[in-house]
Model the fold of this input.
Amino acid sequence: MSKTILIIARDEWRYWQRSRLSLAVLIIALSLVAASVWVTKVSNTDNAHQRAHMQSQAEHSFKDQPDRHPHRMVHYGHYVFRSLPPLGALDPGIDALTGNAIFLEGHRQNSATLADKKQSSGLTWISSLTPAFVMQIIAPLLLIILGFSMVTREREAGTLDFLKVQGVSLLALLAGKGLALVTAAVLISTPLIIGVMISVINGAGLLSATAFIASYWLYLIIWSAIVLLISTLVRTNASSFSGLIAIWILTCLIIPRVASNTAGVIVHAPGKLETDLAILRQLREIGDGHNMSSRANSAMRDSLLAKYNVKSVDALPVNFKGIVAQQSEADLTKVLNKFARQQMHQQTGQAEIFRYFGWLSPMIAIQNASMKLAATDLENYHEFLQQAETARYDFVQSLNRLHAENMTLEQDSNKYRNDVAKKAATVSADNWQILSDFSFSPLSEKQRITNSLFAISQLLLMLGALLATLSFAGKRL
Amino acid sequence: MNWIDIRREALFLISKKSIVALLIIATLLSIFSVWTGSVEIAQQRATIQRLIDADELDRKAVTEQYHDYGYIAYYTFHLTYAPPSPLAFAALGVRDVYPWKHRIRMLALEGQIHESDTQNPELALAGKIDFTFVVAVFSPLLLLLLLHDMRASERAASRYDFLMVTRRHRYNLWPLRAGITVALLWLALIIPFIAGALFNGVTVGLIILVSLTVAAYLSGWAVLCYWVSRIHASAPVLASLILGAWLLTTFIIPSAGNVIIDKYYNGPHGGAVLMTQREAVNDAWDLPHETTMAAFLENHPQWAGKTDTNSLFEWKWYYAFQQVGDEKVQPLAEAYQQTAKDRYETAGWVALLSPATLLQRQLTQWADTDATAAWQYNDKVRSFHAELRHFYYPLLFNDKDFEKAALQKRPEFDTVKKSDE
Done:
């Protein structure tokens, strides 16, 4: 039995070697995958260098600032850049669509700026030369051209009956043909595997890298099964080809976009501006970090006076302005974080609707699995925003502590009087070392694999259903 | 060729189940794209309306809270936006990546204008299905399925020779059959579009223009399919050839062109623009006021003699150094913008090799949803920011006492005004 399968598989390969169309397809597929791996690798290395360079430049310029009033440094602010995870060189995911830098300052959570897509030629509106795109969209098409006639050909030529008479079961025939197509798929994916190995050298986790390759293989095996199934079920080469192309159009081009439109229409996620305005409305009740006399601040003043048992804020051992700044930053951040979480929640809600369409289209499922494993999905972007926010809050509050503890209220209030008074209300530049080095660390490997399980189970279930149908067809026909 | 021939071929085509199915799919997709496109545009309009209301409320609160031009200029944001055009429902364009709304205040603009308030990136990655996509990317595949086996299928059905012998004129058969197929597909796609266009208030001229462009585009692909279908080979080989041409022009050429263009046109990194601007603005705090004011006067000579300051902090000095910071980074910011423009323009040449991209660029241009429209909006924001500055400068530099009534004349963002006025 197994020998028959191998013979059939080898025979199919021999057929491909003789057919100019099939040879052309194999060569095109291999060179496309190889080119995409190379091109994306090169451009990602450039990007990574630039962002790392910008990051260290931002850190240096912060730490090189002269002696100053600490609140000046709160507004001087800091830039953080999002580095690309190693597997991002194979699947950049949403990297080009999201901003890759955030300006961190007091009293505000800025959005990420500088999306690469805004600087692009606009030619990548439906395609991009990334390994992910080539493997997810183009490779299935090439598998179709390679395999649409695998069974119909035998049927049209009448060799199918001949094989049956010789005692070759249809199931064995299907297994052999399927084996041939899967080996072709694995061959097409070799440049991807080399790319993954390079990423592992660059620090990608072995487990997620393996899962990455495995999920792409799973995807290609699903397509091999689809090709085989249609070729088995229909009568002629022509209808097999048309049917498969229709399935490809539907699952790779139409359903993902229908899913995207549907998610956008069902869940309304207000943008940053609208959220900002909603925040402002809520903030008017909280008090401003620059304003000492608001109602919220007077309650704090009373409690401080009571705590230190003094009559006026001037007699406090700490600078009351600095205390106000600390407290209001803390209150403000609570509100900002609440809204930020809400916004992330809405975006994730949209993405989840989108991901459910993975039950209909294996392309959506592999795209998700791939982005999740490569750490270039929405959740990892949100993780970046959260890490940036933590960095922001830390350095702003350290500066506010300096503001409260390293000068008196009198010095602080008189800072614009003259140059001597200005000098008195500064702290030493040594303090700017409070800034810790920022480097974005994506979700842990374990977390990423867990997150990808939903998409991978969509793929597995689809493969199971296809194999069951195939074996059913193999027995009946 | 007469009506009898047309009727015969039309009836023949309609009697084929696969052709009817493909036409129905085309109609459904066109309806879906027009419907969701219209919903998207309605959402954008509603968002703008909500923003206008909330913005007004916020501005009112700020105006009540402060009694000083400096503070008011600092805390007052102004909403700017680019409303979607009537045709935008059919070509959603790059509005999911390029911002079409900003809130601007009188601080240095370079620190504000690169912010992006965009949609869910994961949905943007999948792309939206709009009428442009249905026509540019999807319709060639439908034509492929409809036309590639025109002759091959008749050969397979052993009718080919019979048909060739009995036709009265060489135009009576294949060109007629192909022509009717294209016309039917065109109707299937364009009727939902026209309905959507009328609903969204697109002008009749533009509707006709788009309809003719779509017809021309379909005809181009139909000619290719027709020409390939004459080759004496099996249907799948013919389809593979057309598919190859589609894959090459629609996917491979644009994405390869993008790689080359990105490599060839290099400008400053956006981060450099932002950080240079920040340094310029922040350094001013430690510079003597005269230095900043001298730099400011170079481009604003009308305030000469009014730039002396009495305290270490004065609002006129504060806004002067914001402006000087912008001016200092201007060459870099322009180079950054120029890189994007160069890339987009060069892409126009690449688009000549990619009909789908050419169509997409044309439709998004008509719909004002392309990158060019986004830059025009940016220019409008820049000129509005300038208006705002020139409104506040007299109040600040002339040391005018605060009067709430003066704010009545404060400029409002006007979406209609041209950026170069």
